[in-house]
Amino acid sequence: MSKILVIMKYELLQFFSTLSGYIFITVFVLINTWFFTMQLFVYNVANMSSFFTTSQLLLLIFVPIITMNLISKEKQSGTIETIYTLPLKLVEFILGKYFTSLILITISFIPSLVHFITICIIGINVDFGIIFCGFLSLVLTSATYCAIGIFTGCITTNQITSFILSFLIIIIFYLLENVLLFLPVKLTSLLQFMSITWQNANLIKGVIDTRVLTYFSSIIFIFLWWGISYLESKKR
User: Fold this and answer.
1) Highest mean pLDDT among 45-49, 61-65, 78-82, 110-114
2) The pLDDT of residue 127 is above 90
3) Are 174 and 168 in contact (CB under 8 A)?
4) CA 130, 67, 109, 204: dihedral to nearest 10 degrees?
5) How many CA atoms lie within 13 A of 87 on its CB side?
6) Which distant-in-sequence residues (6+ apart) come within 8 Å of 197 by Cβ?
7) pLDDT value at position 134?
8) I need a surface site. Which of 16, 66, 141, 233 has the fewest CB within 10 A?
9) Residue 88: CB partners within 8 Å, gap ≥ 6?
10) CB 131 within 8 A of CB 119
């Protein structure tokens, strides 16, 4: 666990050592704030639905950007060979990178607590259960996308390739529900269950279903395991 924390600390310091890290988070926050305030002041709707919708769309781009160089840069620079020789398990290396990406996304969401406080002050009949599930949906979605981004970083050596590949995999999970009408009926139930959009739609109703939690945890585990297995095979 201590080695994972060391990797996380190093990566976070690297991220915030340049102006681009702060710009990234600022852009993320400003876009979310813009759509929230538009709904609040222009359409006079005091809820967080636009925030959750906008955030889900932003994650499609922002997570691949965060994860694209976490592992690819190690392979591109050749430092991955040094890491293989260190008294460090690859699972610790991968988890350190994974939790770093998840923390960065979480930091980007912290300013949105201002939106929540605003809704609590001016909103009427605020449904805290739905808001909680909305935030939980963002956390689970972020965790899933980060796992996919880490996996593509493991199997590629180029940061741009990692970004494109992770974006394509993420967009497939995101749009899967929209193509069900064009697929055989026998596959509909399975592919619908695989859709992140469909899973999130169930979650933001305000009810936490164990099947939804199982879905997200399974996808996260599978992609991280694939990434670790790939690096293990290259190490041998």
Assistant:
1) 61-65
2) no
3) no
4) -10
5) 1
6) 174, 175, 176, 177, 178
7) 86
8) 233
9) 3
10) yes
Range of the domain at 169: 2-235
Tell me how many domains the chain contains: 1
Tokens 């690096």 — which residue? Answer: 231
Half-sphere exposure of 213 (CA within 13 A, CB side): 6
- pLDDT at residue 163, as a whole number: 92
Q: How is residue 189 written in tokens? A: 């139930």
Distance in angstroms (rounded) separating the CA atoms of residues 51 and 136? 13
**Could you give the CA distance from residue 23 to residue 25 in angstroms, rounded to a whole number?**
6
d(CA 87, CA 228): 16
State the Cα–Cα distance between residues 43 and 35, nearest whole angstrom.
11
CB 70 within 8 A of CB 79: no
Q: What is the dihedral of CA 196, 197, 200, 205, to 10 degrees?
A: -150
Tell me the pLDDT of the chain averaged across its residues.
Answer: 84
Contact, 111 vs 29, CB < 8 A?
yes
Lowest mean pLDDT among 60-69, 124-133, 153-162, 218-227: 124-133
Estimate the share of the chain in helix, then strand, then coil, as percent rounded to the nearest 5: 85, 0, 15
Band of pLDDT at residue 34, cut at 50, 70 and 90: confident
Cα atoms in the Cβ-side hemisphere of radius 13 Å centred on 93: 24
Residue type, 218: S
pLDDT in tens, 190-222: 777 788 888 888 787 777 778 888 999 999 999
Chain centre to alpha carbon of residue 164: 15
